[in-house]
Amino acid sequence: MGLIRWLRVTQRAMERAMLRVCLRDQIRNEEIHRRTRVTDIAQRVSKLKRQCAGPKVLEWQPRIGKRSVGQPPTRWTDDIKRVADKRCTQAEFGTPYKRPMSSCGRLSIEMMMMMT
Which domain of life is it from (predicted)? Predict the structure, then answer.
């Protein structure tokens, strides 16, 4: 089970404990979330990850030596780039969103991706 899914499951269990509701009561997660008014952990983690991306782009260092054999491991920038592409696509098609990613930050990520 992925980390985000595990955090969501744990958060829902804590929300149920806050309301003193058990699984047998069969109350939907949306209803529990509405009653507790707790911020969704997955959205919070995603937001913090995007905020952390700016300084990390400036810390890039080139690889020394040859890379290992096999498929390259997933980099932290892969997830950021995927989220940034999705947000830019939403902006192009008029889907409402809060704050768009600045173009200078997006260019920095793309430039870093070209260097690797």
Answer: Eukaryota
When computed from its CA atoms, the radius of gyration of the chain, rounded to whole angstroms, is 19
Burial label, 81 (beta-carbon count in 10 A; 0-12, 13-18, 19+): middle
Residue 15 confidence (pLDDT): 92
Neighbours of 84 (CB within 10 A): 19
How far is the C-alpha of 47 from the C-alpha of 18, rounded, in Å? 25
**DSSP output for 35-56:** HHTPPPHHHHHHHHHHHHHHHH
pTM tops 0.90: no
- Of 91, 90, 4, nearest in space to 45 by CA: 4
